[in-house]
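User:
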Amino acid sequence: MINVKKISPPLFAFALTSLLSFASMADDVLLAEKQLLSGLKFIQDLSVDRALDEFNDLSERYPNYKLVQLLKADLLALKSGQHALLKSIHQKNPRTVGRLQNEAVVRWEFSQSGLSDNRVFERYVLKIGEQPNLVLVDLADNRLYVYERDEQNNLQQIANYYISMGRAGAGKQKEGDRGTPLGVYHIVELLPDSEVSELYGVGALPINYPNDWDLKKGRTGSGIWLHGTPRDTYIRDPNASRGCVVLNNTAMEKLLAMYRLPFETPFILVEDHQVEKQSAALNEPILEEVKSWLKRRYVGVPWETVSVYRYPNEDDLLYVTFPASSENKLVHQYWQRGNNGDWSLVIESLNEYSEKEDKKV
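Assistant: Predicted structure:
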């Protein structure tokens, strides 16, 4: 049986309210997650019938939702006194059951985190240029966040979804290790449903792994995508991919069709289990140093077009990027802080990106 941790009713209510606020545009994925969490809360309260009501409804609407089917079967077995049968099924399928139980724990623990907390974004995004969107994936929470520029020109979180990552977890090092990279990347292509196999669901957004820093560190591999799920699966368990970031198909369709992320969209992969609130004042000296250097070396580059990120999983490393004077090209820079506390440029490259073509998704 799923073992969920005890949380306070007010905090749980806040979590559900936050989820519902993100679901204001009739987002079926988040509404289903809200109902899943409600069912888990009823299990915690020993309200078996109410939990079954939630899971029955979910299983009817999403018959391929494997976690819900497991929860429903567990509760029915317990309710009918079939404890031996339940134990036998779990023992015969330890890998499958274990993965689904892990998904339940990941979902439950995330419901305690507040959902709308922006501290991961504030830690890694020191300054954003003129990109209309940004995608941030927090692998510690198995969560993807989409940001979009509002009428006041500020990036606001507009969506967040549960994701599956590589079987080896975060921190890809070499080809075939089934890890998901940590770093700052860019979306480089759009692959619609017609151009991918069933494994990738409704489409995919490949990213530029390995980037310049990965190559410097000797990391190898390729084919790291953000993609959907096979149609016989509602969503995959938390560590099910070969290194990619995997979304529910409905959520992936939304990214492909509604948000239509440009190819230069930043794609930040982080793993932070405990992130302290970041003071914007701490970033000001760093930004001033970068701005001063660019003003001397790149005359004519508008500061408002420059993006500066603190690089994930690296001590004292910045990633700086801005459009080059040549059309459809980006400058990529990696800055490292020395023992004297000063920042210096260690890698610079220039890459071309293509304008997004209209593809049927």
